[in-house]
Every structure is written in C-alpha cells, then in structure tokens.
Amino acid sequence: MTKTNFKATVVLAGLALMGLSACASAPAPSGYSDPHEDQNRWTHRANVKLDRALVSPASNTYGTILPQPVRDSVSSFSDNASLPGVVANNLLQGNIEDAVHNTVRFAFNSTLGLLGIFDVATGVGLEERDSDFGETLHVWGAPEGDYVVLPFFGPSTERDGFGILVDFVLNPLSLALPTEVKHLPKAAWVLSKFGDRYQFSDTIDEFYESEDGYDLMKLYYLDSRRYELGIEVEDDELEDLYDAYDG
Amino acid sequence: MMRMMGNEISMTRRAFVGGLAGLGVLAAMPGRALAAISAGQAESLINKVVADINSIINSGGSESAMIKKFEGVFAKYADVNFIALSALGPDGRSASSGQKSAFVKAFRGYIARRYGSRFREFQGGRIDVVSTKQVKSRFEVLTKTTLKGHSPFDVVFIVSSKNGKFIDMQVEGISIVKSERKEIGAMLDRRKGDLNRLIADLQKG
Predict the structure, then answer these.
(1) Range of the structural domain that residue A101 is part of
(2) B160 to chain A: which residues are within 8 Å by CB?
(3) Which residues constitute the signal peptide according to the record (chain A) (predicted)?
(4) Residue of B14, B63, B146, B172 to mutate, interface with A, max A Cβ within 10 Å
(5) More confident of the two residues A24 and A93
(6) How many domains in chain A?
C-alpha cells in the first residue's frame, strides 16, 4: 500500500465518519444497536479480504524473519514515539497525574531505553498508561455515537473513529521531528501492528473465519472500550444472570 | 426465565451440599463450607487459580498438555454448570437433564480448548491478584495480566460468596458468560436448534 493511498483512505474514512455523524440520530448511550449494519458488514468483509491478501501474509513474514526480542523493540519504539501524543491527551483531559507519569516514562525510555527500543520504565514502576483522543472526547462529554467498522482499523464508534483521525494528524512528535525521520514512528507503528497480528494470530484468525465474527467483534469492542473508559453500562443481561445465581 | 433456571440450579446445589453435610463429608472440604465465604477467601481462591494458570503458561508444555491442565483448573475452581447453562441460555429450557449434563461436559472441553489454546500467546506473561470488592452477594476479584511488550490488562473474576466458585471472568470488560451466550446461541442457530448435534460437535472439538 502506498503512502498516498493510505493517506487518501484515512481522509476518506474521516469524511465517511463525518457523513455518518451528520446523519446520525440521537446517539445510544449503551446497548449494541447498529444502525449502519449493512455498511459495517461490507467494511468488515473488505477488512477480512485485505487481511487475507496482505496483512496476514506480511505479518507471518515479519514474525518469522525477526526474532521476538527485535519485534518487541520495534513495538517499544513505536509505543514510546506515541507517548507525546498520549501526554497531550492526558493534559486535554485534565489528567495531570497520567501526564506526569507518561512524561517521565518518555524521558526514561528515550534516554536509558535508547530512543525507546527498550522499555526500561515499566521495570521501575512506570508502566504503560495509554490514552487517545476518543477518550478525550469522552471526558469532554461527547457521546459514543453509532457503532462503525473502519477500513484497516476495524471496530470503532463515531467518537473513537474521529479520535483516531485527530491522533493521526496531530501527533506532536511527528510535528516536531525533522523531515528525514518524520515517518519513522509511523513505519514502526505499522510493523508493531504486524507483530500483534502475528502474536495473536490464532485469536484473530478465529474472528475472521467465524461466521459470527462480525457480531463478536462488535460485542468485544464495545464492552472493552466502555470498560476502559469507565462507562457504567446498565448491563441487565449479566446482572440478571448473576442475581439468579445468588438466589 | 433465567431467574427460574438459576433457582433450579441453586436448589440442586443446596440439595447436593446438604446431602454431603449429612454424610459428614463437609468437614473435610473447608473450601465448600455452606456459610458465605469472606472477601479474603474469595481472593485466596483466585490466588490459587492465578498460580495454577501462571504455572501452566510458563510450563513450556505442549498445547494439548496445557489445554488438559486448564480444563482441570476450570473444573476445580469454576461453577462450570452455571457458566455452561447460562451460555446455553433460554434455548436450554426444553433440554432434558441428560442433555444438560452432556452439554455441560462438552462445554467444559470446548472452553478449555478455546481459551487454553491461547496460552501460547501468553508465554512469559504473568497474572497478579490486585484487589477484591464485594458487589451484592458476590465478590469481584481484580487481576492484572502482564505480557511482555504490552500494557497490562484486567481480568475480573466473579466469585460467588455462596460456594466460593467463580461464575464468570471478565477480560477487560468482556464477560465470558456473555460472549459464550452469543457464541453458543449462534452455533445452535446454525444447527437449527438441534442441541444433540451441538453437543456432538462440541465433543469432537
């Protein structure tokens, strides 16, 4: 995939999202309603095809050629390069504690961790605390919006999809880096995704091969994202089951 | 409906535990005391589960050996009966008791294969118990799983205070009971509601 194509796709995805947002009715705060199901299923199928044709083989090659320690380093480097963006989001959310935590983590890994290829900070209690612009929007009170499946990125919501776009465009490190190495973090990010695809290949294959992969991915994404953001979901189904057990 | 089914299950268990108590077996099984367990006991139960799983993922054994061991852990510490019948959901309403017990057994193997085969992805990882809180008459034991090169993720074990067994696991907010309910429901739909076929297919693996 060429760079221009990729950028064009991201922009298209963004436009599509805005289109969706514009025509979306009042957003559902919880539940699993899927007003764009037809379009989502189409994108899901396209993602699976793309995975089979390109991502999965590339990931296998990447995982087979490079030993785990090297892949870990690529992943650490990519995570470290994303930290300034995470700190920006921490600040936008008014989360000073995490902003300081992540700043010190960035300082440690960029120096002692040799530009981030080693994650030395985790060892001294400065573990990864991720954040993104979707979370910032949530903190600001933006509703989740409808469930959407994005090209490449997969399951998301209108809010989180917009967040991905903003994080991508406004990465402080990319803006600060000199032109020659500007794209290094993005390249590392793509490789680290290949690494994840390789490491979790069994799980991902199961999703992609299963007929209910679409429904399960929707359930998994929404449940885990709501958990991550600390959104209390009135989960009657599960509560009822547990309560029935308690008798 | 689910409420009714739950009562049915708990009635059977009461009868079962009561019968054991009558035989004087209970004294030899402190973990299964009739009295409600404490938060400390719930946490120590999950400590044992976590210790067992840690040793499995770092045992370096073959995948089939890991799956076998995991099935053992699941059978020992979880209320497989509840998890399986919840996954079956309302579809299990009309099942005979023979079908139910066959399903529970097949489900146990299916879960062990489904999740046990993932342990390869967890090699070199570590799970730690973080905290326990009481919610109604159950305990939520929070654990953190640390994998090399990934941010730690939460697994919450839901432990019943009635019998000290865990009745669900929520991985980063994803409930096994809930997702298996969806999965098993879809599998049953694909077999046009034929439970015997589903059982046979689950047994085959």
Answers:
(1) 36-229
(2) 245-246
(3) 1-26
(4) B172
(5) A93
(6) 1
